[in-house]
Amino acid sequence: MNLTPGGNAPVPAQELRVRITSGGQVDASAFRLYADGKVQGDADMVFYGQPRNDDGTVSLVSEGQYSTFTVALNRLKPDVQKIAFTVTCDGGQTVSGLRNLSIDVEQGATGLVSGSVELSGR
Q: Which superkingdom, per the lineage (predicted)?
């Protein structure tokens, strides 16, 4: 399935790998969101300074232009509605300077969802 910017996609409630690839170094983050569309606290955020959440259901490994999240959907708290992924640019870099940004969601060796965004001119 090809994902469009701002899009959502259903995925199986299993352990998944979410890879974010960019044309430059970014800080990728994941957020556990609840019915109100918000996090409940710091434990719901995963990023470079906190690469694992409180219960280990979301973890992050970043290497340059690649950020890989492991997400155990089958172990999430029942009241978690979704996981949101974001990127922010480092230092004086701009989004248009990244040139491209893509996301791939995999279960084992099977690709489930992918999407890319052309960033030139943004």
A: Bacteria
